[in-house]
Amino acid sequence: DADVYQGLSQVYGHLGDFARARTTVARELELAPHRASAHLRSAQYALAGKPTKGDRKWARERIQSALELDPENSGVLDSAARLSWDLRRFNDVDAFVARGLAIDPESSSLRYLYGLRQAAKAQSKSSVAAEVMQVQQMGQVLAADPRYTDADHLLTVRVWSRLRALTALPLVVIAVLAPSMLLMYRTTSRFGVVWVSLAIILLISLIAAITAFRVFRAVPRAYLRRQFRLAFRGWVLPLAIAGFVATALAVVLFATVTSPTLARWSIVVTSVGALCSGAAVTGQSVRLFTERSTRDSLKAKARRLRGLTNSSLVTVLRVAAPLVVLLLVGLNTSRPDA
Predict the structure, then answer these.
(1) Would you give the distance in Å from CA 31 to the centre of its chain?
(2) How much is the pTM?
(3) pLDDT > 90 in the chain, percent
(4) What does the DSSP assignment read for 248-283?
(5) Is 305 exposed, middle or buried (0-12, 13-18, 19+ CB in 10 A)?
(6) For residue 210, what are the contacts with CB-CB under 8 A and spacing of at least 6?
(7) CA distance 271 to 24
(8) Residue 313 CB partners (closer than 8 Å, separation 6+)
(9) Are the CB atoms for 70 and 36 separated by under 8 Å?
């Protein structure tokens, strides 16, 4: 019975056993060649893993067969667009999404794909413009369907990425202050080094703040307030504030004191700031992602695991970078009291 093979192919696909999934969906196609969904699943499993040139050709043929069988089905067009994306046939993606939205303009999945494509096209202008476009489109999808998890996931990732970028500013300060400290006691123009360093810190901070503002302005207000409440609830907000206060104090020490020892302590204070502000927000993001609903597809779970891994790596870097910088400063300075 074709339905049995349909169920088996879907189970094998969810388990990641794509060899058996291909075999069972091929049997389903033999029994029910008129099913557009079977052709699309055959294309999906052909592209799973590391597809060969033959697999990609087979997938294109199955997509075309599905569209011939059911050309006015928005769900078929949606799946065809997603598979074409995997094939990197973006003109086909645009065409299928446009046809699908003409049939079902309220489809959240098609609106999501449309938003991704609009953002990809904006990428040619600038990465920030693409990010802003993506955030705007995902906000529109969630406004129409608040329970659409893919759009919610992507919007959450964008907001938290910008939050983490802001809380990484103490690391930027360390990266500027450390080499500047080595120079300022080996040159007669100490104040020149100080002012150049402060100008670099200010410029980078302004760029980060303006970029974050552009992205946050595109996020729906209610959604952004909810994310901020999640980000800075409990112990996170005091730690983040302490981090930025420590960083500001370090910059003041660096700019005003003449003692090498106190200048070195500006690096130590900034390291504390980096750990407080960065680790607090990063740790909160990991906890929030683990608290999210478990009713996700395997692909969404895989994306989450990659995100958690990246967050962990960022945390390690935040801890390691200040210690490495302190070691280098201590080894390379020529002043015994520094």
Answers:
(1) 42
(2) 0.68
(3) 13
(4) HHHHHHHHH---HHHHHHHHHHHHHHHHHHHHHHHH
(5) exposed
(6) none
(7) 57
(8) none
(9) yes
DSSP conformational letter for 335: -
Mean pLDDT of the region 92-102: 92
The per-residue pLDDT for 79 is: 92
Structure tokens that stand for 32 in this block: 């029910």
In angstroms, the CA 285 to CA 300 distance is 16
Round to whole Å and give the CA distance between 112 and 107. Answer: 9
Q: Which two tokens stand for residue 316?
A: 């390690």
- Does residue 14 have a pLDDT over 90? no
Confirm if 80 and 45 have CB atoms less than 8 A apart.
no
What's the alpha-carbon Rg for the chain, to the nearest Å? Answer: 26
Closest to 9 (Cα-Cα) out of 205, 143, 20 = 20
> Which pLDDT belongs to residue 203?
87
| pLDDT at position 315 | 53
The encoded tokens of residue 278 equal 């960065």
At 332, list the tokens: 């390379």
| Among 197, 178, 168, 202, residue whose Cα is nearest residue 274 | 168
Query: Both tokens of residue 99?
Result: 């046809």
